[in-house]
Amino acid sequence: MSLLIGINTAQAKIPVDGIEQNSKCQVEYKATNHCNSHCKKNENIMIASHRGDWRNAPENSIAAIESAISHGADIVEIDIRETADGQLVLMHDSNVDRMTDGTGYISMLTLSQLQSLRLRLLQGGETQLTEHKVPTFKEAIAAAKGRVIINLDKAWEIREKVYDDLKSMDAVSIGLFKSNANPDEVQEFLDKDDSILYMHKLREDNLSHIDGFDRHTPYAWEIGFETLTEPQINAELVESLAQESAIWINSLWYGQAAGFTDEVAHLDPISGWQNVIDHFSATIIQTDNVVELDQWLKCGKDRKKKTIRACIQL
Which Pfam family, any one, appears in the UniProt record (predicted)? Predict the structure, then answer.
């Protein structure tokens, strides 16, 4: 039966906790009182760390993957590119200019040329050079295997090569492919191996894709929304999707989940992370702040410096 039947796409504004709070004291008090109750409630939430843990190592480096894992990530998001000689490496941009001491497009550089470069710290730009090198996808698989899922960004167009690398290392089940491609195209790819994990990106303009998955149910739905009135976050629809799949929400920056960002969560986790859990059925949150999100979910039990207000004990 269609999940869209009976859904009112003109959704009313969703009530959210704490968003209207203006007083620092009010927000802090509300978050503090919430501390003891939220830990058990959120114990099954998975953390996806964006580009590894780029706050502590160069983004998309093996060190960033290791740091994300050590700080509590369940999923590590990486970006995959293909070199001039057909090898797969990790890099967000199509060129190496921002993240290395070199220049040029990855598609025009060989693996050997790329591995002669040094990665810049954090998110690159004017940051200092490190001794870290551009990793291959296989090196990333080796670092993640048996420890975390790897979310494969920028990989759909080269999915066959990505799959082959995962298969060669007996690691297909840790790679989470994603796209907003036509469901027929997606299911043709999924038909080849039942162990492939797949997440579909759901937005206002592709709601019809939901009913296109007649052979394979996505492992997760990545739901993005700029405002609270968009039909893809209709409560009934999201709850229906959550019955069989994980719900992935990005708290990275404004516009991916309206205003429920990491920055808002730093001021008051109730207004940020807790809202996407309570009101949008999030079971996976992608963050640029893996340390803070992990410690908030643990309620600060392992944190010496209690910088997350939801875990302040008065």
Answer: GDPD
